[in-house]
Amino acid sequence: MQPIINGSIAGSLAVLITNPFDLAKTRLQLQGELKAHGTYEKHYRGVIDSLRKTIREEGKYSVYKGLQSAIVFQIIMNGLRFGMYDITKTNVQYTQFYKSYIFPSNIAISAIVGYFSALISSPFNMIKTRLMLQSDFIPGGKRYHYNGLIDAIRTIHGLEGFAGLYKGSTIMACRTSLGSGVQLPAYDLSKKFYDNHFNNYWVQTVLASATSTFFLCTITCPLEGIMTRYFNQPFIDGKGQTYSGAIEAFFRIIQTEGVLGLYKGLGGLFWRSGPQSFLSLIIVNKLNSKR
User: Phi/psi of residue 266, each to 5°?
Assistant: First the structure.
């Protein structure tokens, strides 16, 4: 139970710092939705410009839109993800199969716990996304009008029932499964590599975190963008009015925006995931070491 609590603490503390970058990433992903490059005016021209304009147009606290939902999401998702990864590894590390296939076993464990943790926590990520996109200054913003986390839950449940809270949950689960399958084993592997080349703990941890984040962002960015757009689209009678699912979204984005359309918000994703991963891993490792 302690690893789950440690993972929850780590994720919820880290998001206090990374929420502005998450907001920038989310808005950049929506910008120019299904429009060819050069046919629309870019309101935001990168992460820093996005944060600067958001503060200027919507107030200094606007970069923390969706924070309540983000904290609950991190408590559930990272609590289960980090906690169950640690618990499962501890329980299987002495088996012959694990000893023979350590790296692929870690990938499988990480992917499985990532899938189920994301599936459970998905409603809070959807609400976070919609709250972050509530703005009069971006096309596609203000599709939803919530006065916070509780109001969002009541509104969605009242209009669409329990199923409405889990719109896009399988996309979220697949994205996190893929990300977890890459991030946690990549961190473990790179940490061992840097341990052999550097004596400073902080240098080892920063480099390992940056390495795992690079692979995480490069591989998951397309699904991140698809997930953001799927969450934010209008739904009528439970059906998405822009995308029916991840596969259709993938091909529609490529057809209208090109392959690079799948990588919108990559800079914001790195600035969100880098500090989030580094801080979460630092905190959870320190907490686990005290057990």
Answer: -60, -40
pLDDT on residue 34? 94
Closest by CA position to 184, among listed 89, 98, 95: 89
Judged by DSSP in three states, 240 sits in strand
CA 70 to centroid of chain Cα atoms: 10
- What's the token pair of residue 128? 């976070």
Q: How far apart are CA 179 and CA 170, in angstroms?
A: 14
**Distances, alpha carbon 129 to alpha carbons 25, 195, 216, 287, in Å:** 10, 37, 20, 30
Q: How far apart are CA 226 and CA 138, in angstroms?
A: 18
CB burial string 228-258: b at 16+ within 10 A, e below: bbbbbbebeeeebebbeebeebbebbeeebe
Q: Would you state the structure tokens that stand for residue 15, as one six-digit string?
A: 């998001």
Which residue would you say has higher pLDDT here, 84 or 241?
241
Q: Is the pLDDT of residue 104 over 80?
A: yes
Structure tokens at 271: 């600035």
Structural contact between residues 141 and 133, judged by C-beta atoms closer than 8 angstroms: yes
Token pair in block for residue 27 = 């808005």
Report the C-alpha gap between 72 and 60 in whole angstroms: 23
Q: Max Cα separation, the chain?
A: 59
3-state class (DSSP) for residue 130: helix
Which candidate, 194, 264, 198, places its Cα nearest to that of 226? 264
Assign residue 190 a region (left: φ > 0; alpha: ψ between -120 and 50; beta: otherwise): alpha
Q: What whole-number distance in Å separates Cα of residue 64 and Cα of residue 49?
A: 16
Q: What is the pTM of this model?
A: 0.90
Burial of 139 (0-12, 13-18, 19+ CB in 10 A): middle
